[in-house]
Amino acid sequence: MTFLAALRDTTRPDAPDALRIGDVTLSWSQVRDAASTFAAGVDRTGPVAVCAVPTMETVVAVTGCLLAGVPVVPIAPDSGPAELAHLVTDSGATSWAGPLRDGIELPVQSIDLHPSDPAPLPEAIDEATPATILYTSGTTGSPKGVLMSHHALRTGIEGLAEAWGWTDADTVAHGLPLFHTHGLVLGVLGSLHIGSRAVHTGKPTPELYAAAEATMYFGVPTVWTRVARDPESARRLASARLLVSGSAPLPVPVFERLRELTGQSPIERYGMTETLLTLSTRADGERRPGWVGLPVGEAETRIRGEDGSFAPHDGETVGRLEVRGPMLFDGYLNLPEVTAEVFTEDGWFVTGDLAVVDADGFHRIVGRESVDLIKSGGYRIGAGEIETSLLSRPEVHEVAVVGLPDEDLGQRIVAFVVTAEASDDLAASLVDHVATDLSWHKRPREVRFVESLPRNHMGKIQKKQLLEPAP
Ligand code: MCA
Ligand code: AMP
After folding, report:
1. In whole angstroms, what is the distance from residue 362 CA to residue 97 CA?
2. With 70 as the cut, is the pLDDT of residue 8 above it?
3. How far is the CA of 182 from the centre of ligand 2 (A)?
4. Which of 220, 314, 321, 399 reaches 20 to 30 Å from 99, CA-CA?
5. Residue 468: exposed, middle, or buried by beta-carbon count in 10 A (0-12, 13-18, 19+)?
6. Domains of the chain
7. Of ligand 2's atoms, which has the minimum distance to the CA of residue 274?
8. Residue nearest to atom 3 of ligand 2 (CA)
9. pLDDT category, 1, cuts 50, 70, 90?
10. Per-residue confidence at 470, pLDDT binned at 50, 70, 90?
11. Of all residues in the chain, what percent are helix, strand and coil, respectively (each to 5)?
């Protein structure tokens, strides 16, 4: 078996609308020809950095790299100079595809959506080959490159297809970014493997979802919260086969409101960049609000207490969630020690999430072990990265960044800043600094000036005290 099986299958009937992104639509054979032509010309000396704007060109470049067996590094199109420099240097990218960014001196690979003399489909490649290097934040330091093989992507997608009854009769729609697992791997590459049609709506707004006429809709909880607040758009999703939420916890009231408006309960699933998706409720099974269901495909899970003992399956005992399976990553690029730290001695990946499991094997994610990993709008953001960026400003003497509860975003990034120059202008300028230095979605939504940060007798900042509501 090979990843992107449906795209590679030249015997299946063509469909004129296999893939639609914004106002560009291509058939299966057109996607195949464009991607094969990109593959034929691609620089094979190192990974290709793809500026992941939500366009057909991005999908053709990514797919072309996969067909060629060249690892692809999707880059957030608005990465600031610090983030961009880190991603390009750390990944060892030797070429670039998509809109060129200032400061990038790599050779640019051309993308032709309609080649006049298309190259033939490349031979299947070894499944152990790295497919993607997806950058994701940790609690400290710069984002880490997560190496996913073709085998991991294929087995992960096939597990989901079984759980969701996902077939080539489906049309998948979403409007999520193409530089993360959710939007790129599940939302686009998954269809190119399974053979379903795919529609990228450009942005994930309720109106655009309502107009997409799909059978399966993918969204982060913020998207579903906005759909639930827009009854007219929500009702137009009633005829869909599955409404799927993931990347962060779906609030129970949103689950219930969606059920009221659409007549169907959303599917909730859980995953990580490092593990693809490991847990989900099933199309043919129970969908319980607040719970993420059962292991998918060949994934296995276990929950352990701090002393290493296994948590009883009583639906109450909270422990650390550990995962094993063929859809796991092959490590963090250039970071063997960090990779070793996130695996147990017997080879299970420690997710950093806290969970419970009940007698039926149903899982509920209770929270994260560290307050330093924030999930805002479904984006994973490391507090340390934002603190480092803010501390580069001379006005900032001390800073602590936390995620506070937010009805729309799940968590919103709040920076507590100690400075001698507190003012509204400084707050706005610090927000702007992070938005341009790192990226737009990493900007604090709020800056609070404080006299000092709460510390324990060892001098360590007590972030938990900052999570309490402001007086
Ligand atoms: C956006 N705006 C900007 C920029 N970007 N302005 C200046 N510069 C920019 N670079 C503007 C927009 O035009 C808009 O303006 C306003 O900012 C707010 O934009 P919006 O898109 O609504 O952003 P948001 O409210 O901040 O974000 C909500 C969101 C977003 C759209 C849901 O958070 C999102 O796309 N999240 C998806 C994250 C994701 O895919 N995570 C998956 C990780 P105006 O209002 O004037 O139009 S993978 C994963 O987690 C695993 C494997 C898993 O389990 O799935
Ligand atoms: P990322 O690497 O961006 O995929 O983020 C992975 C993290 O997202 C996980 O470790 C969880 O904390 C969180 N996450 C993903 N899906 C869910 C979900 N359905 N419920 C709760 N948390 C989730």
Report:
1. 42
2. yes
3. 10
4. 220
5. exposed
6. 1-171+182-200+293-367 (3.40.50.12780), 373-466 (3.30.300.30)
7. 2
8. 380
9. confident
10. low
11. 30, 25, 45
What does the pLDDT look like over 119-129, one tens digit per residue?
999 999 999 99
| Three-point CA angle 135, 402, 293, nearest 5° | 65
pLDDT tens column, 77-116: 999 998 999 999 999 999 999 999 999 999 999 999 999 9
Return the number of other C-beta atoms located less than 10 Å from residue 344's C-beta: 14
Nearest to 250 by CA among 220, 281, 274: 220
Distance in Å from the first CA to the final CA of the chain:
59
Find the 330 Cα to ligand 1 centroid distance in Å: 28
Predicted structure pTM score: 0.97
The pLDDT tens digits for 428-437 are 999 999 999 9
Whether the CB of 247 sits within 6 Å of ligand 1 = yes
DSSP calls for 30-80? HHHHHHHHHHHH---SS-EEEE--SSHHHHHHHHHHHHHT--EEEE-TT--
**Pairwise CA distance, residues 206 & 224, whole Å:** 8
State which ligand 1 atom lies nearest to the alpha carbon of 205: 31
Closest atom of ligand 2 relative to the 368 alpha carbon: 12
Model pLDDT, residue 409:
98
- Radius of gyration of the chain measured on its C-alpha atoms: 22
Residue 267 has pLDDT above 70, yes or no: yes
Can you name the residues that pair with 280 across neighbouring β-strands? Answer: 269, 294
